[in-house]
Write a structure and sequence with these properties.
The chain has 211 residues and is mainly beta. Helices cover 9% and strands 31% of the residues. It contains 2 helices and 14 strands. It has helices at 19-33, 95-99; strands at 11-12, 14-17, 68-71, 76-79, 82-85, 105-108, 119-120, 125-129, 133-138, 149-152, 156-163, 168-175, 186-189, 194-199. The protein starts with 10 loop residues before the first strand and ends in a 12-residue tail after the last strand.
Length: 211
């Protein structure tokens, strides 16, 4: 079959939240209340990413630690296909455009994880396939389903996860080797991982996940 355009519109995949994740989130909330008084190291490492949402700057000894930071002080909101930040309410249906929206607030950078709620991270992920489906497993603990979103079209998967009790953020766009049926694909959130089940458009064997 002819490969669809990679840039066609994406749709949000149906999500299923496991009971194990719901229980784990509740337990973590209780533990967090008891762990708010631990000591921290004031040293900032070279290359540390600013923890403010929407800021992509990293710390360098050659730059001014007090330079202005343009970021989003609010939270990401996904509702009825629209994506926007609670702080500036600039709505869009395009996932990439949402991720690249310029911040609406100016303050100083936050170089320490404890000073903010989210840290941009790289997540380990793996994949396997059957004759009819491709499975992508992302090893992210305690994903918040209300603040996370996974979208897809026939050849691309866009992933935005908030996990580990709002402390970490993972963004990933995957251009698939094969073709899928997004309306028949689902996402399942478990206590220690997120699993994306992609329905193949045919029964061909994929040599790799990404182009």
């Amino acid at each position: 079959m002819e490969r669809p355009n990679d840039n066609e519109p994406t749709i949000e995949l149906k999500t299923i939240v496991s009971s194990s994740l719901k229980t784990a989130i509740e337990k973590k909330q209780v533990l967090t209340e008891k762990e708010n008084h631990s000591g921290t190291d004031d040293k900032i490492s070279e290359g540390t990413l600013c923890q403010n949402r929407g800021c992509k700057c990293s710390f360098s000894l050659e730059t001014d630690i007090n330079e202005e930071c343009i970021h989003h002080p609010g939270y990401p909101i996904f509702h009825e296909g629209m994506k926007y930040w609670s702080c500036c309410n600039k709505k869009t249906t395009d996932f990439t455009e949402f991720l690249n929206q310029k911040g609406c607030s100016v303050s100083h950078h936050c170089w320490k994880q404890e000073d903010t709620q989210q840290k941009h991270t790289s997540c380990r992920y793996d994949w396997y396939q059957t004759g009819s489906n491709v499975y992508i497993t992302i090893y992210s603990k305690l994903v918040d389903p209300t603040k996370s979103i996974i979208e897809a079209n026939h050849t691309t998967v866009k992933i935005f996860l908030i996990y580990e009790h709002d402390n970490r953020q993972f963004n990933k766009v995957i251009t698939l080797e094969g073709v899928i049926l997004p309306d028949k694909s689902i996402v399942q959130y478990f206590g220690a991982k997120a699993e994306i089940k992609l329905k193949k458009a045919d029964t061909n064997n994929w040599r790799k996940l990404e182009l």
